[in-house]
Q: What sequence folds into this?
């Protein structure tokens, strides 16, 4: 991908200045989600204020011994927990590795440290995997919203879609199709229930999630207390 440094309205459309040149277009879509930054200012000034970027991480184990994968997840479901700070996991497409992800930390940490934290969480759920190494670790951002709903919308040549709460692989397929319908039809009426304008924002939030370490730690504390009481 090529980073867009600036988007400006020009007669007949928009001009996007990128690291590799300038593009012009009649319409522009802000599909930057958790990576929405200063480039949206001026055209979509409130979009960034309505999105809370949260870092999430994944790890993959080394190949599991034959038969162990089937005992760990017999039907190979995709599992997503219902806690406040969730973990999610499934087997790799070839059924040989366990893929495990979640919010490893709400503080800035390198991939080695976040992988170690996720590995510890994995072993808490699957102690029979003790001794297996983690061979891959990676991370990125997902976009949360105050109302915990995705949003799409726009008009006058500028559009947006964002805020899938960490479920963008499935939701963005649907929302992208819906936004394309909205743009091509030129209709001002909502195309679905998520077409209701910019995400709501808090007056004390400017797009920088300064509160996440405190809020995330509080959620982790509540989850731990409920586990002990169960």
A:
């Amino acid at each position: 991908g090529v980073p867009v440094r600036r988007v400006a309205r020009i007669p007949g459309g928009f001009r996007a200045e990128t690291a590799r040149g300038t593009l012009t277009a009649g319409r522009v879509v802000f599909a930057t989600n958790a990576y929405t930054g200063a480039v949206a200012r001026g055209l979509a000034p409130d979009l960034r204020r309505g999105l809370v970027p949260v870092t999430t991480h994944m790890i993959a184990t080394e190949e599991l011994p034959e038969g162990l994968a089937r005992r760990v997840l017999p039907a190979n479901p995709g599992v997503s927990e219902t806690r406040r700070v969730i973990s999610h996991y499934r087997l790799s497409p070839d059924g040989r590795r366990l893929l495990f992800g979640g919010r490893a930390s709400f503080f800035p940490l390198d991939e080695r440290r976040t992988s170690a934290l996720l590995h510890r969480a994995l072993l808490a759920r699957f102690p029979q995997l003790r001794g297996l190494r983690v061979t891959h670790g990676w991370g990125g951002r997902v976009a949360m919203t105050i109302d915990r709903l995705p949003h799409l919308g726009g008009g006058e040549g500028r559009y947006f879609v964002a805020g899938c709460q960490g479920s963008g692989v499935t939701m963005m397929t649907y929302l992208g199709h819906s936004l394309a319908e909205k743009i091509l039809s030129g209709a001002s009426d909502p195309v679905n229930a998520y077409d209701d304008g910019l995400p709501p924002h808090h007056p004390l939030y400017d797009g920088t999630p300064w509160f996440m370490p405190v809020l995330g730690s509080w959620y982790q504390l509540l989850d731990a207390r409920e586990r002990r009481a169960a």
Q: What stands out?
A: The two ends are 46 Å apart (CA to CA).
